[in-house]
Design a protein that fits this description.
The complex is a heterodimer.
Chain A (H helix, E strand, L loop, with lengths): L15 H14 L3 H21 L4 H18 L9 H23 L4 H5 L13 H14 L4 H10 L7 H11 L3 H21 L3 H6 L1
Chain B lengths: L14 H16 L4 H9 L8 E9 L19 E7 L9 E10 L2 E9 L4 E7 L2 E9 L4 E8 L1 E8 L5 E4 L2 E3 L1
Parallel strand pairs in B: 1-9
Antiparallel strand pairs in B: 1-2, 2-3, 3-4, 4-7, 5-6, 5-8, 8-9, 8-10
Classes of the chains: A mainly alpha, B mainly beta.
Chain lengths: 209, 174
C-alpha cells in the first residue's frame, strides 16, 4: 500500500504511517474500538519504554502508562490536528511519569533497586539457533558496555523497526528534546557501538548472518 | 527502508541494518509492555464518557502550585485534598466543582466529597480495574462519602437532576 518515494523533486508526501495514525485517531474518536486497539498496539511499546526510561518500577510504569491512555481517551474529541498525536502522547506520558516520581519522593525514600532492575542485562533467548544466540549475546554484551546515556536513548529509538518520524516525535516530546537532535545522537551512539564491536571482532559475525 | 533519503548522519547504507535489526529485536524482547497493561488500555475504551463535561484537577494538596512535592508529614496519615473544577459554561453560570478528601483506611481509601455549588446529586466512581460502576448519593448539601475505594486510578462523575453530567479527570490514589 505504501508507495516508495524516488524522485527527489517530488512534493513532501504525508508518510503512510502518519496518515494511518490520523485515520485511526478519527475512527477512535467516532467510537471505533478496533481503531482504538490499533492505536494502543501501535504506541504501547514506545510508551512503556518511556515509563521505564524515567526509572519507574513495573507497578508505577503500569499506572503512568494507563494514565496516558486514559488522558487520550478524555481528549479524543479535542485533538483537532492528528499529526500532533505523537507529540501529545510523548508529552502526556512524560508528565504522568514525572508526577508519579514526585509523589514517590514524598511518600517513600528513593529506591535505587528500581533503577537497577532495569539494567540487569539481557534476558536469554532459549529458542534461538545457537549461532544467532551467540551472536546476539555478544552484541548485547557490547551494548551493555555503552555509556548509560547511549543505552537509554537507543532503547527508545530502536524500539520501532523503521524508526519513523512518528516515533521520533513521540520520543522527542517525552524527553523534552528537539526532534532534530535525536538522529545525530543516535548516529553517535551507534558509531560507538560499532567501534566496540569492531574492537571485539564481532562485526564479522554480524556480517555473516 | 528509504535508502534514497539517507541523511548525512546515516552511515553506509545497509551497514546499519545488520546491526539495527538484531539490536532492535533484543531491545524489544528485553522489556515489552506487559500484556495485561496493553489489554487494560484497550478495555479502557469502554470507560469513555462522551456525554459528560470534564472537570480538571485544579488543586492537589500533595503537590503545591508550582508542582513540587510538599514536604511529607507522617506517612499516609495526612488526608490528601483534591479539587476538580469545570469552568463552564454551566446551566447556572456558576462553575461546578468537587472537593475530595482522600484518607487511608487499611488497604482501602475513603473519599469524603463536597460538591460546589452544594446540592443533591448521584455520584459515580469508576476504576479501570473494577468492572462495575459504584454509585452513592450526595445529600442536599452536596456532601458524599465513598468507602473502601481501592488504590489506583479513579474518576468521579456527578449527575444533578436536569443538568449535564460532569466527570473528573483521572487521578491516581496512592
Amino acid at each position: 500500500m505504501r508507495e516508495r518515494q524516488t524522485g527527489a523533486g517530488s512534493p513532501q508526501p504525508v508518510p503512510a504511517v502518519q496518515h494511518d495514525v490520523a485515520h485511526q485517531l478519527r475512527l477512535a474518536a467516532s467510537g471505533d474500538q478496533v481503531a482504538w486497539n490499533n492505536l494502543v498496539d501501535r504506541f504501547s511499546p514506545l510508551l512503556w519504554s518511556i515509563c521505564r526510561h524515567f526509572g519507574l518500577s513495573s507497578a508505577d510504569a503500569a499506572d503512568a502508562f494507563q494514565l496516558t491512555w486514559l488522558r487520550l481517551l478524555e481528549h479524543l474529541d479535542t485533538i483537532h490536528d492528528p499529526a500532533r498525536l505523537p507529540g501529545w502522547l510523548g508529552t502526556t506520558c512524560r508528565r504522568e511519569c514525572l508526577g508519579i516520581l514526585r509523589r514517590n519522593k514524598r511518600v517513600r525514600p528513593t529506591d535505587d533497586d528500581r533503577l537497577l532492575d532495569r539494567f540487569s542485562g539481557p534476558s536469554s533467548s532459549a529458542d534461538q539457533p545457537a549461532l544467532i544466540a551467540d551472536r546476539n549475546a555478544r552484541l548485547w554484551r557490547e551494548f551493555g558496555r555503552l555509556d548509560v546515556r547511549c543505552q537509554k536513548i537507543l532503547r527508545l529509538l530502536l524500539i520501532e523497526p523503521a524508526g519513523d518520524r512518528v516515533s521520533y516525535e513521540l520520543v522527542a516530546a517525552a524527553l523534552d528534546m528537539p526532534v532534530g537532535s535525536l538522529g545525530p545522537i543516535r548516529g553517535r551512539c551507534l558509531a560507538r557501538l560499532r567501534g566496540l564491536l569492531d574492537a571485539e571482532g564481532i562485526s564479522d559475525a554480524l556480517r555473516d548472518s | 527502508m528509504d535508502d534514497e533519503h539517507a541523511g548525512p548522519e546515516t552511515p553506509a547504507p545497509g551497514a546499519d541494518d545488520r546491526l539495527l535489526a538484531p539490536l532492535g529485536d533484543l531491545i524489544r524482547a528485553e522489556d515489552p509492555p506487559p500484556a495485561v497493561a496493553v489489554e487494560l488500555a484497550k478495555q479502557s475504551f469502554g470507560l469513555r464518557q462522551v456525554d459528560t463535561e470534564l472537570a480538571t484537577l485544579v488543586a492537589d494538596s500533595a503537590v503545591d502550585a508550582v508542582g513540587t512535592a510538599v514536604r511529607a508529614g507522617e506517612r499516609g496519615t495526612v488526608p490528601r485534598l483534591l479539587t476538580f473544577e469545570f469552568g463552564g459554561p454551566t446551566e447556572t453560570g456558576e462553575p461546578e466543582a468537587v472537593e475530595v478528601e482522600v484518607s487511608r483506611s487499611g488497604r482501602y481509601r475513603r473519599l469524603l466529597g463536597q460538591l460546589q455549588p452544594p446540592g443533591a446529586a448521584r455520584i459515580e466512581v469508576r476504576q479501570p480495574e473494577v468492572d462495575a460502576v459504584r454509585q452513592v448519593d450526595a445529600d442536599d448539601q452536596g456532601r458524599f462519602v465513598v468507602e473502601a475505594v481501592g488504590a489506583g486510578l479513579m474518576r468521579l462523575t456527578w449527575r444533578r437532576p436536569g443538568r449535564n453530567a460532569i466527570t473528573t479527570a483521572w487521578v491516581r490514589l496512592d
